Amino acid sequence: RIFQLDLSYSYLLYYSKRGISDGEYPYLKELPNEEWTNKIHFENNVDILFPKAFTALDLLAHLLFACLGLKTEKKIKGKTKNINKSFNNAMFQIKKLDRELYNKLNEIRDSFEFKKASKVRNDIIHNQPPYEMRNEKVKSPGGTETVIVKYIPSKEILNIARGLLELMRQIFIIVEDFLK
Question: pLDDT, tens digit, for every residue of 37-91?
Fold first, then answer.
C-alpha cells in the first residue's frame, strides 16, 4: 500500500507541475484541453491516494492487534461479536493499554491536517469529491440559508495529500519506536 501511495503522490506532483490553473472555480470553464487532461489524471490519483492511505492505517492496525494482543472479540448482549481491526478501534484499545503511545498517536489523529485529510477521504468515498464543484446550503446565525459553491483546487488537495503522508510517516515512526 505504501508503494501505491508513493506512486499516486508522484502522479499528483507530475500532473500538478504540468499545469492545472483551477485556483478559482469560475476559471474551470476556461481550462485549455491539456490542463483538463492533467486535471482528470490528477483527480484519478486523488481518488486512489486518500482511500489507500487510510487503508494503510487500517493495515497497521492489524499489526497492532497482533503485536499488542488487542482484543478481537467483545460480548454484546451475551453474543460474541468480532471487532473490526481498524485504526480507530486499535486506538480505542491502546488508550487503555499504553497511555503514552495513545497520546502520541492521538495528537496526530486529532490534528487539523489529519481531520482535513479524513474529510477529503470521506467525501471521495461517501459524498461528492472535493475537486468537483458542488452547491452547499449554509445557514447563518440569523437563520438565513444561502447556497454557496464549494470547490477545493488541485493545489490545495496536493497540500492536503502532502500533509497526510507526512502524518502517516510520523505514525509509523511512533509505532516502530514503540515496538522496538
Answer: 999 999 999 999 999 999 999 999 999 999 999 999 888 888 999 999 999 999 9
Work out the burial of residue 160: count CB atoms within 10 Å of its CB; fewer than 13 is exposed, 13-18 middle, 19 or more buried: buried
Distance CA(69)–CA(104), nearest Å, equals 19
- 10 Å CB burial of residue 176 (0-12, 13-18, 19+) is exposed
Q: How far apart are CA 3 and CA 40, in angstroms?
A: 22
91's grid cell: 486506538
Q: Residue 80: beta bridge partners?
A: 75
Consecutive H or E run containing 116: helix 112-126
Distance between alpha carbon 128 and the CA centroid of its chain, in Å? 15
Compute φ and ψ for 97, nearest 5 degrees.
-85, -50
Query: Which of 75, 74, 92, 91 has its CA nearest to residue 83?
Result: 74
> What's the CA gap between 3 and 30, in Å, rounded?
35
Q: From 39, 42, 93, select the one nearest 66 (Cα to Cα).
A: 93
Quote the CA–CA distance of 128 and 164 in Å, as a whole number: 20
Can you give the C-alpha Rg of the chain in angstroms? 20
Q: Using CA atoms, how far apart are residues 131 and 39, in angstroms rounded to an integer?
A: 9
